[in-house]
Amino acid sequence: MYQKAFLQNIVSTAQLIEGTNKIDLQSLANKISEAKYHPKRFSALTIKLKYPMKATGLLFSNGRIVCVGTKSVKDSEIAIRHFVQIIKEAISISIEMRGFRIQNVVSSFSFPGPLNLPALYDSMRYAPPIWLAKHISYNPEFFPGMCLRLKESRAVIIVFTTGKCIITGAKSEEEIYSTQNKIYNSISAFIKNKSKNACVNFSS
Known about the structure:
Blueprint: E1 6-15, H1 25-31, E2 35-36, E3 45-49, E4 55-59, E5 64-70, H2 73-88, E6 98-110, H3 117-126, E7 132-137, E8 146-150, E9 156-159, E10 164-170, H4 173-188
Antiparallel strand pairs: 1-5, 1-6, 2-3, 3-4, 4-5, 6-10, 7-8, 8-9, 9-10
Family: Belongs to the TBP family.
Pfam family, one: TBP
GO molecular function: DNA binding
């Protein structure tokens, strides 16, 4: 069985306050040792979490928080709860986590050999598989990868000559593995010097 996609980054969001209330980010930055705030560079307060997992929280004055850097959906939610606790201890207004949502799941894996992207591009244009949406982007003079989109999915697949594949834009871990399962055989047929196609089926 070939390599299952590794989750590289989960992006999630939540809302911490309601209504027109605003958070004084400068005051908060002065009270939280793990926080950095440079409003001339970026409008959000940055908080680094090192335990129980590594994550970065981006807090905006309207109470919206963005969490990046975790390796699973569960860890992303746990990280935001830790950010909420850190903020609660340094702020006077009431806050709580509302509307937790996964915005993006990014993963990667490698095919077992380099890919013939020009041949893959021609095949995708003239004999597209049933999962492929119309949009294909491949211009090696500007970007070394080929971008493919799936029908009925927000996921974007980026494949490189080296055989590396990135899946981004998914909303769940299950969507990552489902996407990998759909595309694998169609793309692996273009591994250079491959003697025969391989069939593989991943479960989430």
